[in-house]
Amino acid sequence: MYGTSLLWRHWIERMRRQKAGVTGGLTLAQARVRAGLSQSQVARRLGISQADVSKLERRADLRLSTLRAFAGSIGARLYVALQGADDHVPRPLVLPDPSRARTLVSPAQGGSA
Question: Taking the alpha carbons of 51, 57, 61, 66 in that order, is the dihedral positive or negative?
């Protein structure tokens, strides 16, 4: 893809994602840029070369362990969802933060007013 325009590269990336069955979310490169990190910074965090990060960002087929490591290196979480043909688009389950939990006791339950 040497000397190609940005618009053409985006179109090629979109076609690759469609072929791989990727329907939503960010590409690895988009997630890295959104995190404000360069390929070199991510490479140092992962213990690999900048060229290897570039290759990862272009691949359409990655292991979950690789995705998890990449996500961790940019301060993100990896969510995986399975969706059947008739299913609606799933939403990630957000669990409450246990450190912010409070116990509520009302006077009717034996608490003092």
Answer: positive
